[in-house]
């Protein structure tokens, strides 16, 4: 069984994330969405809320693709998380050249720790390349419409969180 790990903070999950998840399903039999605790980023949503959003958004994707998709919170090294969930592949989404520079360094470090886990980069579809959770939160806080960037249920939760 091919197991992939798609890690991120998912604060909140966006249409860009779901695009990468959908496309990653073609590569693996089981896809684990690693929801990073990442308190250093000061997430807006709690870990539990982010895991619940990922599970809710991935349920339909799992049915559509036939790929098992599970959410897995983690706060250890990415390579250790990959071992914990039995992943042979780490899936990373790329939006721009700046993403690549950071991800390239991460791959090098991860391979130095354990070269048995491969990293696969997937480019976001053009219409999703500008979407970043940080920007979505800022737009929502300033009263902008985030409908083009997040699923409807996530928009509802985002607006409720902001008040």
Detailed description of the structure:
The N and C termini lie far apart (44 Å). The protein is an alpha/beta fold and 163 residues long. The model has no long low-confidence stretch (mean pLDDT 94). Helix content is 45%, strand content 20%. Strand 1, helix 1 and strand 2 form a beta-alpha-beta unit. Strands 3-2-1-4-5 form a 5-stranded parallel sheet, sandwiched between helices. The protein is built from 6 helices and 5 strands; from the N terminus they run E-H-E-H-E-H-E-H-E-H-H. It has helices at residues 15-24, 47-65, 78-85, 97-113, 133-141, 152-162; strands spanning 3-8, 30-36, 68-74, 89-94, 118-123.
Question: What's the main sheet like?
Answer: 5 strands, parallel
Backbone structural class: alpha/beta
Distance between the termini: 44 Å
- Overall average pLDDT: 94
Radius of gyration: 15 Å
Q: Strand order within the widest sheet?
A: 3-2-1-4-5
**What general outline do the C-alpha atoms trace?**
globular
What order do the SSEs take from the amino end to the carboxyl end, as H and E? EHEHEHEHEHH
Low-confidence stretches: none
């Amino acid at each position: 069984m091919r197991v992939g790990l798609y890690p991120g903070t998912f604060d909140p999950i966006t249409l860009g994330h779901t695009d990468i998840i959908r496309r990653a399903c073609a590569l693996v039999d089981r896809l684990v969405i690693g929801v990073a605790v990442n308190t250093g980023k000061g997430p807006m949503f709690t870990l539990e809320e982010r895991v619940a959003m990922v599970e809710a958004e991935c349920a339909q994707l799992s049915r559509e693709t036939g790929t098992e998709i599970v959410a897995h919170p983690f706060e250890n090294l990415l390579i250790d998380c990959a071992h914990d969930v039995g992943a042979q592949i780490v899936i990373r989404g790329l939006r721009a050249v700046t993403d690549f520079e950071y991800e390239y360094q991460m791959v090098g470090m991860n391979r130095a720790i354990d070269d048995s886990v491969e990293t696969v980069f997937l480019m976001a579809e053009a219409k999703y390349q500008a979407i970043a959770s940080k920007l979505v939160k800022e737009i929502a806080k300033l009263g902008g419409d985030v409908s083009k960037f997040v699923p409807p249920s996530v928009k509802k939760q985002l607006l409720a969180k902001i008040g």
